[in-house]
Amino acid sequence: MSDFNWCHGPECHKKHTVDRVRGVKGSKVLRTRKVKITNWNEGNWYSYFCSQQCYDNFANKYIQQVIAIAPRTECLETPINDPKKETHNNGYYNYNNWKIEVDETRQR
Asked: Does 1 score more than 90 pLDDT?
């Protein structure tokens, strides 16, 4: 297996940066960046895109095809116990926090 991937950003090879310039004098090209696979990015999207912009361009271009792989036809829900309001005072004003706990007895 290779220790790098080519960036999957659909516009990566069109960005005008010096690190993308390849080729000999007279036949230069802008090339897609290599993305080195390391321990921290292996198995997630960081190993396929050189930047957040390339990731966003890919997602915006292919979102309908990605969603078609596993469409969501109904909402997801997590059962919870009745939320409890906790009122606090920091010396200047009162504020509320809501304590929301998952109801483990109703988990699927």
From this structure: no
